[in-house]
Design goal:
alpha/beta; Rossmann fold; Helicase, Ruva Protein, domain 3; 4 domains; five-stranded parallel sheet; 19 helices; about 50% helix
Length: about 450
Amino acid sequence: MKKSFILLIDDDDSLRRVMEFNLTEAGYRVQTAASGDEGLRLFEKNNFDAVISDITMPGMGGMEVLAKIRKHDTQIPVVMITAYGTIESAVDAVKQGAFDYITKPFNRDELRLTLDKALRMRRLEKENIELRSEVTDRYRFDSIIGSSEKIRDVLDSAGRVAASDATVLITGERGTGKELLAKGIHFNSSRAKGAFVAVNCAAIPESLIESELFGHVKGAFTGAGRNKEGKFELADGGTILLDEIGELRIDLQAKILRVLQERTVDRLGDTKSISVDVRVIASTNRDIEQAIKDGKFREDLYDRINVVGLRMPPLRERREDIPLLVRHFLNKFNKNTSVGIEQEAMAVLLSYGWPGNVRELESVIERASVLKRGSLVTPADLPEKLKKEKNSVENILLNLPEEGIALEELEKSLIVKALERNKGNQTRAAEYLGITRPTLIYRMEKFGLK
């Protein structure tokens, strides 16, 4: 494995030698400089993975070194060393782009831990850039941010299915990016030059949904003053996304099934069928198999749309992607300025359950970008509910009885309380507990809860 290459800048000969020894012993390649000028000359000649610099040095100080490094490279992590009396300068350095600072006197473990975190963040950023480049070249799913194994698996499967004309069912909770995945499949397929038509089946009034999907002819019903093409016709030669297909009425499900089987649509009020060449992608946040058992979804339609099934994982299952998403959204909402985030604020984001998934995270970062007081997002800029979640869990743990408790009884009790709080609504109870509805139903059956 390639060793990380570190530039160490400090005018204190004794401290510099000790740090060089400790870092070399920890497995890093280290090059040292006794002044800011010497450090910059080395920086311009070498490809370092990280920089450690003292703040207070004769001649060119650490703040000037940081500013000049940032002009050359905005991504390389820079760790500042400060004495207790210059902590304010170190905080300013973080605001101006330093990754973090350590305060003298420090031990070797603190130095290694800070450097390890800086390099880990840098590796994640590089992996995401490489993944985004690979995705753009191979799949063109360039709106899906993440380098976690679960996202890689989804993108790999989606890339392979895009080459075919198979019908796809994308499942996942609200806000996970199901439509983005559907667009990626379309724009990497042979139908990319055709239309991509998205229909939110849950958002269109029941009285209009049939006309929206299949069209109508003049006089078909009161108010039909002219012929109208439906969404299937508009998507001819391309792809139609039936978003939230689980919300469709049973009678409309039968008509969707006919389109898939016959490749024709019947406009309302018309006597002849119209041929369409459309790829169908469906998506839902519902448990379709449970809906079939409840008589609310046709099993034969499920078999037709679920030729290839893809699941977008919730954000709580891929927390390692949160720093990448945060940086992406910070760049999106602060286009003309460089904005960072304090470690304490990032810790809050990493510990939250994210029932609204990526969409909720985007909203939180947009809010923080508006409310921030400086160039760093702090915990004060985040909604209170994010900070309360951790406290509420800690309170539960603090109140555990000394004599012990049965884990299954605790889990059963929490499920009952969540259902009572949400008046028996399983979807809301599942969101409250931070699990999926199918998982909740499975555990209800396990504990004999109705």
